[in-house]
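Pasting as-is:
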Amino acid sequence: MMIMRTMNKRNCMKGLTIVEVMIALGAGAVILTALTYITLTSLGNSRQGSSQALATQLAQEGMEIMRNMKENNWTGFTALQDTTYCLASTCTVPNSSSGGTCGPKVSTCGLNVSNKYVREVTVAHGVARCVPPVPVAGRIYIAVNSSVSWKDSLCTNPSDPYCHKVKVESCFANFDNRTAP
C-alpha cells in the first residue's frame, strides 16, 4: 500500500509539473505580446513626434520667410493678395504674380518641401484678431498663417491624404519699434 501511495504521488507530481509549464508558457506569451505591443506603440509615437517637430520647424521657417519679406520689402508684402500661397523649400518670397511652388495655390501645393511635407502660407489683410482695439491711423494690419501638412500610414482617408497639420499664426503691421542709432 505504501508503494501504491508513492507511485500515485509521483504521477500526480508529473501532472502538476506539465500544468505548471503550460501556465508559465501562457503567461510568458501574454507578457511577450504586451511588451511587443508597448514597443511598437512607443516607436510609432516617437516617429509621429519627430514628424510633428519637423513640421513645426518648417511652419516656423515659412513664417520667417514672410517676416523677412515684411522687413525687406514692405510694399511687396502689402501687395500680396488675400489668398493661400504655396511656399516650397526653395522659396524666399511668395510670388503674387504666378502660381506654382512659390505662388498662389491653384488646387494643391503638392509635396513642395520634401517627399512628405506640404507648406502653405495664407495672407489676409485687416483680420479682426490682428487689429488692436484702438487702431493706429495709417497702419496696415496683416494676418499670416504658415501651415505644414504631412502624410503617413495613419492617413487612410483618400479625400484627406495629408491628415496631419501644424499651423503657426502671426500678425504684422507697418510698425518698426527699433530705436534709431
